[in-house]
């Protein structure tokens, strides 16, 4: 709890600093101050991604049961990071009036998009469960991984929503976009670390058991079935929790 409190306080300080720089640009000041803070935005995004959510558990569970290599696994984490931040930018730029009151978008939330994301994750979970029990050997392709990454990130980043709304309301949307870019880099840094760690651990386990093909196949199928059940459970719990 103390760690989460410290993370929350750190995020608040960085957010206020960026808001002050955006306010200065809107008042006719230069961009030098904002540019000086942009590297801090990467750290901001990385720390923000450590908080609950952001699809870290979904990402790790999927990659642990997949056969994607390191590069393709990292593309899954990048897809989640890009979607998470870019969706917030699009919501503000294309539908700013909806941010304050709407069935589709509420401050820091997009309930319909979140429900669609969870429902589709459940569908992927059912597919993985079916595939785990069919007899024919199977592989995970990068297209499926990108779909998982996209759906895991299909929840708008509330901090990006707030900063983008602040910037657009003051007539400097480009300042909000600059913040969103560095925020996305930071989120990607954390999610990529999770992805790389998961894949390397899985590959080391496979190497240790490479002479036990039957056992390895059973473990792989079991993991895939468990991930399928996890995705289905998350979808059901989140959709019917309300």
Q: How would you describe this structure in keywords?
A:
80% helix, 242 residues, single chain, elongated, mainly alpha
Summarize the SSE layout with pairings.
Blueprint: H1 2-26, H2 32-48, H3 56-65, H4 70-100, H5 111-133, H6 142-152, H7 158-169, H8 173-208, H9 213-240
Helix pairs in contact: 1-2, 1-7, 2-8, 3-6, 3-8, 3-9, 4-6, 4-7, 4-8, 5-9, 7-8
Q: What is the arithmetic mean of pLDDT?
A: 77
Largest sheet: none
H and E order: HHHHHHHHH
User: Could you say how many structural domains there are in total?
Assistant: 1
Describe the fold and architecture.
This protein has 242 residues and is mainly α. The chain has one domain. Helices cover 80% and strands 0% of the residues. It is built from 9 helices and no strands. The chain has helices spanning 2-26, 32-48, 56-65, 70-100, 111-133, 142-152, 158-169, 173-208, 213-240. Helix 1 (2-26) runs antiparallel to helix 2, helix 3 (56-65) packs antiparallel against helix 6 and helix 4 (70-100) packs parallel to helix 6. The protein is elongated and about 70 Å long.
Provide a quick synopsis of the model.
With 242 residues, this protein is mainly alpha-helical. The chain has one domain. It contains 9 helices and no strands.
């Amino acid at each position: 709890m103390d760690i989460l409190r410290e993370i929350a306080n750190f995020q608040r300080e960085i957010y206020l600093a960026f808001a002050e720089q955006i306010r200065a640009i809107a008042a006719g000041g230069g961009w030098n101050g904002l540019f000086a803070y942009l590297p801090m935005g990467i750290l901001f995004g990385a720390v923000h991604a450590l908080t609950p959510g952001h699809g870290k558990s979904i990402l790790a569970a999927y990659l642990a049961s997949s056969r994607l290599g390191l590069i393709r696994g990292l593309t899954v984490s990048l897809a989640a990071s890009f979607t998470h931040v870019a969706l917030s930018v699009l919501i503000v730029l294309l539908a700013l009036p909806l941010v304050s009151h709407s069935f589709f978008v509420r401050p820091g939330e997009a309930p319909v998009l979140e429900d669609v994301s969870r429902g589709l994750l459940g569908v992927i979970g059912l597919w993985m469960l079916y595939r785990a029990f069919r007899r024919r050997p199977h592989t995970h392709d990068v297209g499926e991984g990108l779909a998982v990454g996209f759906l895991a990130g299909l929840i708008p980043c509330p901090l990006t929503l707030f900063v983008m709304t602040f910037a657009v309301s003051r007539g400097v949307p480009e300042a909000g976009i600059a913040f969103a870019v560095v925020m996305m880099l930071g989120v990607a840094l954390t999610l990529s670390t999770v992805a790389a760690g998961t894949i390397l651990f899985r590959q080391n386990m496979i190497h240790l058991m490479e002479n036990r093909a039957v056992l390895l196949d059973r473990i792989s199928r079991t993991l895939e079935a468990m991930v399928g059940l996890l995705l289905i459970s998350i979808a059901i719990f989140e959709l019917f929790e309300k």
